[in-house]
Amino acid sequence: MSAPAGLKNPAGAVRGMGAGGLVVEGLVLLLALLPLAKLGHGDNAAAMWVCGVLAVVCFALCGLLKHSWAWIAALLVQVVLLAGGFLHWSLLALGVVFGPAWVYVLYVRRSVYANKPD
Fold it and tell me: What are the transmembrane regions (predicted)?
């Protein structure tokens, strides 16, 4: 007789998926600092600060996904990236890439929690 299908720890799986997405986003933000510095001719200081701060926030939120407010804070990171498009177009591009990815993460989270056995 086989075990029933499903996740043994759905909350942990969802947190792991969210943390993985935040780690990738944080690394991409850190990697974006060098092109901003080299190609900006010194006028991208604000965009570089936004990138650096958002990378630190992404890494910090990885450990805080136990709390429901951290999921909303992670979504706000995407909004700040989109708004950062006013500082440099590359921040808007990163927001366009990671925004839908994070919306998908939230969709999966809602789906997993909706299908939890009682």
Answer: 12-34, 46-66, 86-107
Domain boundaries, the chain: 13-114
Segment 50-69 mean pLDDT: 94
How is residue 1 written in tokens? 């007789």
Tokens 């925004």 sit on residue: 99
pTM for the full model? Answer: 0.86
Which pLDDT score, from 0 to 100, does residue 86 have? 92
State the CB neighbour count (10 A cutoff) for residue 64: 15
Helices 68-83, 10-31: inter-axial angle, 10-degree rounding? 30
CA separation for the pair 38, 70 (Å, rounded)? 33
Q: Is the dihedral of CA 47, 35, 79, 114 positive or negative?
A: negative
Task: Give the DSSP letter of residue 4.
Answer: P
DSSP 8-state secondary structure symbol assigned to residue 55: H
Q: How far apart are CA 109 and CA 106, in angstroms?
A: 5
Q: How confident is the model at residue 44 (pLDDT cuts 50, 70, 90)?
A: confident
Distance CA(28)–CA(11), nearest Å, equals 26
